[in-house]
């Protein structure tokens, strides 16, 4: 069972704890049943002329024990489930943090996000149901032991009927599984269409032909989902009714047919009937929860599969034994570094390198090249996000490896072309307010936002303005190296000029090593050096070299 496997991760006593509390609850139920039957027998033997205080007292005592055992069991299960989910969530987060970045990108954000949010929620929201089911199974086992104690014939009869019921139930379940599979697929298609409608809402509004097509496709998908949903739920209801009917049939067999053929069982029929009636509640819970359980199992197995996949792509890094690298470095060197994207169709494969390169501390370095030439890929290698396929990268005499990769990344502040702007200045422990205000003024953004209590008052700004905040954040992080990927692409001509002619030289003056990917050929002369990429091959060119220019 995938759920149990998932919850037992990093807690090998969980199964034992559940078994003990389940056993106590089951025994309590069986004791209650036994007591009711003994009282009924007593009345039938001796009549109802006085109250049997011993039995009545025992009933009250066992009911109390049963009550507390049930409360303990259910709340224990809910706690175990929440703690188990917490553990797996933390485990997935840690695995994501430790995964090789390029392989993590291949897994895709959607799968990661869905597993950490939706899948955990499916299990968490149904914690109560899982508890009820577990309790029902325990109760059923205890009642069956009680039935066996009264009559082995009745026990095997019930097992036989349950067996036939399970076979029919599973056959129906197979059809149900197929319909649920189809339902999930249609649902995924529908969600994709909804996401398309929302993400492209501007484009949809702007052209009625596109909007008509998309809405028609969404309508068809939604109707199909309703149809399949109805079919699947219809099958669930039938399966449920079938499961319950089997027990009423069993009761009828025990009451009407068995006495005709077995005189030995006749005297025990009332006790066995009560036992069967006792089982109907738990069976009903189990039958009703089957479809939810298949969703829970699906979620658990998806999370386990993701965890396994993440374990396989774990980056070779040892942050615990990492040694900090000094902020005053001399140079970063690439020696015959190559890189290719994994799982890429070899016919369209892109190879970066081999690259030999040396970046000196305090330099202002521009990286130029056409679309798809490999600039962003080089930036990801330079920042240590991607690891070389061959060759080596080193900072001063330290080669980047298991112990140095995290400290190396800590030296580099970035604004990637697809950067994310955090409203909070995470990691900036002591913020110099004057300095923050200086940069807000310098970036001509102080009239629309401010920094208060370590966060931007607002980030709901234009894309060019958000980019400015991204760079201010990076500067305030006070790291010795700054890597920018097409930072000025969405700045207006006035600010673009200010960026290249004032801000970049100012950052250089402050001792920051700046590596900037750029297409702005008007300003190539502002760099100390220019590196040019063509189809993955890097060469150093003079600042006035015609390559990379119009
Ligand atoms: N995640 C990825 N998986 C596979 N191939 C990729 C991936 N990202 C980029 N590529 C490929 O690698 C090559 C270089 O891409 P890269 O993004 O480095 O180019 P670039 O020079 O930054 O281009 P642009 O100027 O358009 O931003 C391209 O052929 C691209 O298709």
What tags apply to this protein structure?
single chain, 550 residues, alpha/beta, ABC transporter transmembrane region fold, Rossmann fold, six-stranded mixed β-sheet, four-stranded antiparallel β-sheet, 16 helices, 62% helix, 11% strand, elongated, binds adenosine-5'-triphosphate
Look at the structure and give the mean pLDDT.
87
Proportion of β residues?
5-15%
Helix content: 55-70%
Question: Mind telling me the C-alpha Rg?
Answer: 34 Å
CATH fold name of the domain at 331-541: Rossmann fold
Bound molecules: adenosine-5'-triphosphate
Superfamily (CATH H level) name of the domain at 331-541: P-loop containing nucleotide triphosphate hydrolases
| Ends distance | 63 Å
The count of β-strands is: 12
Sheet with most strands:
6 strands, mixed
Strand order of the largest sheet: 6-9-10-3-11-12
Overall geometry:
elongated
- SSE pattern: HHHHHHHHHHHEEEHEEHEHEEHEHEEE
For this structure, the quaternary state is single chain
Q: What's the CATH class of the domain at 331-541, please?
A: Alpha Beta
Q: Which CATH architecture of the domain at 331-541 is right?
A: 3-Layer(aba) Sandwich
Poorly predicted regions are: none
Count of runs of 4 or more consecutive helical residues: 16
Structural class: alpha/beta
């Amino acid at each position: 069972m995938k759920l149990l496997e998932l919850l037992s991760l990093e807690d090998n006593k969980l199964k034992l704890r559940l078994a003990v509390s389940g056993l106590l609850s089951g025994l309590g139920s069986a004791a209650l049943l036994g007591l009711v039957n003994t009282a009924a027998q007593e009345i039938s033997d001796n009549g109802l002329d006085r109250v049997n205080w011993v039995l009545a007292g025992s009933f009250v005592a066992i009911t109390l024990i049963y009550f507390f055992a049930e409360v303990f069991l259910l709340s224990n299960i809910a706690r175990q489930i929440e703690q188990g989910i917490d553990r797996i969530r933390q485990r997935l987060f840690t695995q994501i943090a430790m995964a090789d970045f390029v392989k993590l990108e291949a897994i895709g954000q959607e799968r990661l996000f869905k597993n950490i949010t939706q899948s955990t929620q499916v299990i968490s929201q149904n914690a109560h149901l899982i508890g009820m089911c577990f309790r029902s199974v325990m109760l059923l086992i205890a009642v069956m032991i009680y039935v066996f104690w009264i009559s082995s014939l009745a026990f095997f009869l019930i097992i036989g009927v349950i067996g036939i019921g399970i076979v029919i139930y599973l056959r129906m379940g197979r059809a149900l599984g197929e319909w649920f599979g189809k339902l999930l697929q249609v649902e995924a298609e529908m969600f994709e269409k909804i996401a398309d409608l929302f993400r492209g809402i501007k484009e949809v509004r702007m052209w009625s032909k596109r909007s008509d097509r998309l809405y028609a496709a969404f309508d068809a998908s939604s109707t199909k989902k309703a149809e399949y949903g109805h079919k699947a739920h219809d099958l669930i209801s039938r399966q449920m009714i079938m499961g319950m009917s089997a027990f009423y049939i069993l009761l009828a067999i025990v009451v009407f047919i068995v006495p005709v053929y077995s005189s030995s069982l006749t005297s025990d029929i009332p006790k066995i009937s009560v036992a069967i009636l006792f089982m109907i509640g738990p069976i009903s819970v189990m039958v009703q929860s089957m479809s939810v359980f298949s969703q829970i199992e699906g979620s658990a197995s998806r999370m386990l599969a993701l965890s396994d996949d993440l374990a396989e792509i774990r980056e070779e890094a040892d942050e615990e034994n990492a040694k900090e690298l000094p902020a005053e470095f001399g140079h970063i060197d690439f020696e015959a570094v190559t890189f290719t994207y994994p799982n890429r169709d070899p016919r369209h494969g892109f190879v970066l390198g081999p690259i030999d390169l040396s970046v000196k501390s305090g330099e202002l370095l521009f990286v130029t090249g056409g679309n798809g030439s490999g600039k962003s890929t080089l930036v990801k290698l330079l920042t240590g996000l991607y690891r070389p396929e061959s060759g080596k990268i080193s900072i001063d005499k330290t080669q980047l490896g298991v112990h140095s990769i995290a400290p190396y990344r800590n030296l580099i502040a970035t604004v990637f072309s697809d950067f994310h702007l955090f409203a909070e200045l995470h990691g900036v422990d002591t913020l110099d307010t004057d300095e923050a205000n200086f940069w807000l003024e310098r970036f001509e953004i102080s009239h629309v936002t401010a920094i208060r209590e370590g966060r931007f008052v607002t980030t709901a700004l234009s894309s060019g303005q958000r980019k400015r905040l991204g760079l201010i954040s990076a500067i305030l992080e006070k790291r010795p190296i700054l890597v920018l990927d097409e930072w000025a692409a969405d700045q207006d001509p006035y600010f673009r000029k200010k960026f290249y002619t004032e801000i970049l030289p100012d950052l250089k003056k402050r001792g920051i090593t700046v590596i900037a990917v750029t297409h702005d050929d008007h300003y190539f002369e502002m760099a100390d050096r220019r590196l040019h990429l063509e189809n993955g091959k890097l060469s150093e060119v003079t600042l006035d070299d015609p390559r990379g220019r119009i």
